[in-house]
């Protein structure tokens, strides 16, 4: 029997796949637990439409990520922080602060989890950070940490 999986099923396939399983396995396990639906004409068409919509959504998200990466090229985010003795910061500049300053200064909404810091920023200066925007698109971000007056 051919079924379309509603969820990932170990040993069978991923969500949205059309798979061939035994009749008993489908009737007694997959269908009652709503893990799959029978692959009739309506369900196959519905699956194809969902797949097409998913591809269109992914393409739109990728173009949006590329646009944000292009905008990041000219951005230099200025962050003002309090300092302690020896030119070191109180605490560290986090990716959350960088994301907030990026939104305030340039209006770009980049999630803090997408900003990659190899090590925390604990001193003044200029830093180049990488932003992984998804869909194999990455942008570079220049951050200047200056002393608060």
Order of helices and strands: EEHEHEEHEEEE
Question: Into which percentage range does the β-strand content fall?
Answer: 25-35%
Read across the widest sheet, the strand sequence of neighbours is 4-9-8-6
Class from helix and strand fractions: alpha+beta
Major β-sheet annotation: 4 strands, mixed
| Overall pLDDT | 91
What's the alpha carbon Rg, rounded to whole Å? 24 Å
Q: Quote the distance from N terminus to C terminus.
A: 72 Å
Shape: elongated
Percent range of helical residues: 25-40%
Give me the number of helical elements. Answer: 3
The unreliable regions are none
Secondary structure: number of strands: 9
Write up what this structure looks like:
Helices cover 35% and strands 32% of the residues. Strand 8 and strand 9 form a beta hairpin. The chain is built from three helices and nine strands. It is of the alpha+beta class and 149 residues long. The mean pLDDT is 91.
Observed structural traits:
149 residues, alpha+beta, three-stranded antiparallel β-sheet, 3 helices, elongated
């Amino acid at each position: 029997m051919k079924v379309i999986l509603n969820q990932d099923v170990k040993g069978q396939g991923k969500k949205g796949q059309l798979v061939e399983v035994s009749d008993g396995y489908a009737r007694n396990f997959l269908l009652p637990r709503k893990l799959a639906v029978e692959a009739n004409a309506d369900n196959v068409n519905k699956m194809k439409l969902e797949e097409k919509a998913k591809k269109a959504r992914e393409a739109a998200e990728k173009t949006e990520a590329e646009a944000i990466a292009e905008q990041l090229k000219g951005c230099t985010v200025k962050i003002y922080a309090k300092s302690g003795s020896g030119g070191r910061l109180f605490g560290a500049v986090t990716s959350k602060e960088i994301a907030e300053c990026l939104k305030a200064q340039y209006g770009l909404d980049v999630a803090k989890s997408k900003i990659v810091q190899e090590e925390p920023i604990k001193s003044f200066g200029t830093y180049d950070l990488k932003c992984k925007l998804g869909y194999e698109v990455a942008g570079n971000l220049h951050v200047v940490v200056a002393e608060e007056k």
